Amino acid sequence: TQDPTPPPLLRIDGERLWAALMQLKEIGAYDDAATGLRGVRRLALTDEDDRARRLVVQWMREAGMAVRVDEIGNVYAVRPGRDRSLPCVLMGSHIDTVATGGAFDGTLGVLGAIEVVRTLDEAGVATLRDIECGFFTDEEGVRFGTDMLGSAVTAGRIPLDHAHALTDDAGRTVAEELVRTGWDGDAHHRRPTPHAYVECHIEQGPILAAAGVDVGVVTGVQSISWQRLTVHGEAAHAGTTPIEHRHDAGLVAAQVVIELRRMCDSGDYGRLRATVGTLGFEPAQTNVIPSSARMTIDLRNPVDDHMTVAEKDLARFVDDLAAAAGVRVEWERMAKTAVVPFSRRIQDVLAETADELGIGYVTAMSGAGHDAQEISALCPTAMVFVAGEHGGISHTPREYSDPRACANGVTLLANAVRRLADE
Ligand code: HGY
Ligand code: MN
Ligand code: MN
Ligand code: MN
């Protein structure tokens, strides 16, 4: 019979967690000219990522866990439960960053998971199920061009051979970089389906701070569309070429940027968010009309139908523009994920546990993509958000969450995971 008295609540060691976050932050640290702050640059499968991976694996082993690496370089560490035959409860996130990153995006969920295991050990807690910690390869997608790569392979959305063949700007493939850094793991380390997955992550937005709480229970993730648009025009003399004779690729690209903002402001596409994060002209000379323009278009929308209409209208706008400007356009699909609603039950476990702990929270949909959106295809999944300072700004060295908020988020993670591992 179940022991009626609930187990004592777990409290994690917030200072130990903070020290680990600050130590990991130093790997790939750089002086960011734009902010005057120390940023973190740890692109997937670079030497910095390799060094960070080895430090995290060392911490996993020091926490008594056996570690394994799968074929896309995802790393899993297991804390055995009483009944090894049962599916595990998995916690994780990522340790790769964008090129101008901060100390918390991804790392909080990975180091938080290790802190949960240490806390369980120190409390002498034995769980029914195995508990696993992990980190997924290339969540940011900045280097190889598609985000959530490792978790998408785990969930079967991206085939392994397709993932292995992705290349960076220098033409190096994921497979080559896995071998070069030694993170090309084993097929027999593929992940069995978990019982549940919970990811702790900074919110990277303003919702929790505005509500005056440290923690959020995440209801789901909005849809993501990444496309590369290349405009092929014609180089010509900037001085002698009459306006009506031009095939100006740069002009067309600029008009696309303006149209994207108009679409967001129009309200015709719900809460559409559009970002042109990269834009480059060739031959990039002051007195030469650009012969080509290459740009990435990142669209986000909490409603799939609005995303579908936005992509369709954008494509039509670009076709009309191209005809008028006498240029040719080329679209390349980089990433596309639909809205992912998280498990109601896991959200309830998180909310009930937060109430037991007396930790204030709000529920929120995630504006950012996360590994949890992929693992959600495998098992009941939800996330714990941690509030950020400065409006939750992220993907910049200004990213910051205070120690108390980090400790509250990981404390919630610890107690919820313990409950899920005993069911
Ligand atoms: O793009 C995203 O939303 C995530 O940070 N990779
Ligand atoms: Mn992240
Ligand atoms: Mn990120
Ligand atoms: Mn092996």
TrEMBL record:
Cited InterPro entries: Amidase_Cbmase, ArgE/DapE_CS, Bact_exopeptidase_dim_dom, Peptidase_M20, Peptidase_M20_dimer
Name of the featured protein: N-carbamoyl-L-amino-acid hydrolase
UniProt source species: Geodermatophilus africanus
Matching Pfam families: M20_dimer (PF07687), Peptidase_M20 (PF01546)
NCBIfam families for the chain: hydantase
Binding annotation for Zn(2+) 2: D105, E140, H395
Domain Peptidase M20 dimerisation intervals: 220-322
Entry's family note: Belongs to the peptidase M20 family.
Cofactor dependence: Zn(2+)
One MF annotation (Gene Ontology) recorded for this entry: metal ion binding
Positions that bind Zn(2+) 1: H94, D105, H201
